Structure formats: C-alpha cells, structure tokens
C-alpha cells in the first residue's frame, strides 16, 4: 500500500500543506470551536486508505501494547479522608488500557507518514495557537496508539496537559463515545457540577461519536471528560500525538516504566533539568 502522507490524509478537505484561503477557512473553524468549548474535531481527516493503513499497522503491533491498570479520581490525586465521602475528589474509578509505544511505528509506516507529513505539526500549532510548540522528543512516546477493549477505559478526568491531539483509528463494536463537560472548571473547581457529572445527573455533558479517521484537538485541563465504557470484542485504537513547550523533553524513568513497561537510556540521561510530567495524561 502507498504510505505517503498525501494518500493517507484527505488533503482535498484539509489542505494543511498549502497556505491559502482554504487552509485559512479550516483554521478559522477549528479555532472557533476551540475557543467556544475547548474542542475541535476534523471529521474525516484521513482518507479511506489512511484508515485502512493505520488500522492494519496498529493491529500488526498490538501485541506490543503495555497494559496498565490503576484506580484514580478525576484529579489523579490521592484519597483525602478528611473530605466528605461524596466529594468528587473521593470518587475513584478503574482506569485500564494499553499503550503501544512509539518505537513500534516505523518511519516508513502509516502513522509516521501522517505525523511527518509536511505541514502537519505547523497546522496543529496554528489551530491551537500555541507559541511554544515542540514535538515530544521521547522515542517511546512522541506518537503512540492507545488500545482499549471491553472492560478497559478512561473514566472521568481532567488532563494534566494543556491539550491533546488524537486521531481515531478504530472504534469498539459499541460504546466509546467521547463525553465532556466544556469548561466546567474554567473559573474555579466547580465541585458541585463536577459531582453531577460523576453521578450521571449533569446536563452539561456533550457527547461526541468520533469515527475512524477523525482528528480531535482537545483542551482537557478545564473540561472534565471520559471515554464511555466499551463493548464487544473489537479493540478501540486511538493515536495520540504529543507536543510540549520545550525542545528535547522526554518522560521521567518512573512514568515511562509505568506507561510503556520499559525505559531507554535517554530517559535516565535526560532526567536532570527537564520537566518530567509532560504526558498526555
Ligand atoms: O482516548 C481518547 O479518546 C482520549 C483519552 C484521554 O482522555 C486522554 O488520553 O487523556
Ligand atoms: Fe484526557
């Protein structure tokens, strides 16, 4: 199969490589959506060939996914028994999934052909209007695939990163909608409304049914979000592209071991003097 980015990305609809009025129109719409509710979805960013190629590639390396399980609240903090039992900081959920580390994706493979396509990074940066914007320099984490099936999932949380860039590759048989409460903690923590989201009684939740090939830009620091429980045998595959505010950053050895099940020499060499918390998490 042809793995040039030009055949995998729908450049007719999203001419990200060509400065001009068409690209400007796509940018304008993405920025408006990001401003309004912290989320922009570029439907059908991949072509049908792109979806097929990325799915085949994810399947071919799926066995290398590293499973991780934990119990976490929406804030990734420890339990605080001094708070009332119904405080949202005391609601813990199971979180489990598998990350396929970035070094499973070859330079000439489909996923990196999209990532390395001329203009891809610049386009994402322009949508997000982030001044400091660098690819994560972590060979295990610059672009990964998040794999989850029935019984796994991402329960309600706020991201520690300012934004997340994801590309839907394959959905589970059922379930897996992306649900989020736009800007729920924009002004303050808004624990009362967060509580309603966690117990399923909020009317502030937007549901997105993302399809294979959709590119999503999401500011998850202020918007509580989750992936609704998955059903069926087919795994859900989502690629996650990581960008950070400084060049040369990699993950801490501890976090890398936890997420990917191994570390490389670079994780130990670089740990002094570099922020270690730049994960999509
Ligand atoms: O898998 C997704 O669609 C998003 C998961 C998520 O919220 C995250 O990686 O922080
Ligand atoms: Fe998230």
From TrEMBL:
Keywords: Iron, Metal-binding, Oxidoreductase. One of its GO terms (molecular function) is metal ion binding. It comes from the Bacteria. Transmembrane segments: none annotated. The keyword Iron applies. Residues 123-245 form the Fe2OG dioxygenase domain. Belongs to the iron/ascorbate-dependent oxidoreductase family. This is 2OG-Fe(II) oxygenase superfamily protein. It comes from Litoreibacter janthinus.
